[in-house]
Design goal:
six-stranded antiparallel β-sheet; 1 helix; single chain; three-stranded antiparallel β-sheet
């Protein structure tokens, strides 16, 4: 009879993961545990300045280092928070010092989705992911003046003007994000 009770108890442990305590037993045991994961730690470095090419795409490096304790199913996501243009677009602005004429050049941006976007309607760049990491590493996103899409254009803002120093900026968003399945 005792072997049968022990056999049933072993079966209950296997099937239900708990130990039945008979009414005539004077003690029982439950193992307890508690674990709180460490907070994620990482450093993301973006370049302070980038000199864009007038003839080809420019690679912009973003580096993640000291990456530790990233929760399972999450990644460090670096996004384009906004550019200096209207509605978060990314523009380069410049003035010809000799004539005083102002110019505006829109930039195309290619992030982790692999498609160049300029910020208009369905090609929205605000919030687009530029790089992502689950461990230490470097990823590049790409920038290019839209003028490269319009060779031979006579539109002043679709042609890179000689003698004009263009400038602009990009602000990044950096944080943890769920990895899409």
């Amino acid at each position: 009879m005792r072997k049968m009770v022990l056999g049933i108890a072993a079966l209950a442990i296997t099937v239900f993961g708990s130990i039945p305590v008979a009414a005539n037993t004077t003690s029982g045991r439950t193992d307890l545990s508690l674990y709180v994961a460490n907070d994620p730690v990482y450093t993301v470095t973006v370049p302070e300045t980038v000199q864009l090419s007038a003839t080809e795409n420019t690679q912009v490096p973003i580096t993640a280092s000291d990456v530790k304790d990233i929760p399972e199913g999450q990644k460090i996501s670096v996004t384009l928070d906004h550019g200096n243009g209207t509605f978060g677009r990314l523009y380069l602005e410049g003035t010809n010092e000799e004539t005083g004429k102002e110019y505006l050049m829109t930039l195309d941006v290619k992030g982790t989705d692999g498609e160049f976007k300029s910020g208009a309607l369905e090609k929205q760049i605000k919030g687009m992911e530029l790089a992502s990491f689950t461990k230490d590493g470097t990823m590049n996103y790409e920038l290019r003046p839209v003028a490269l899409d319009y060779p031979g254009s006579t539109n002043d803002n679709l042609t890179i003007q000689k003698g004009v120093h263009y400038s602009g900026y990009v602000t990044y968003g950096i944080g943890l994000k769920d990895i899409a399945k």
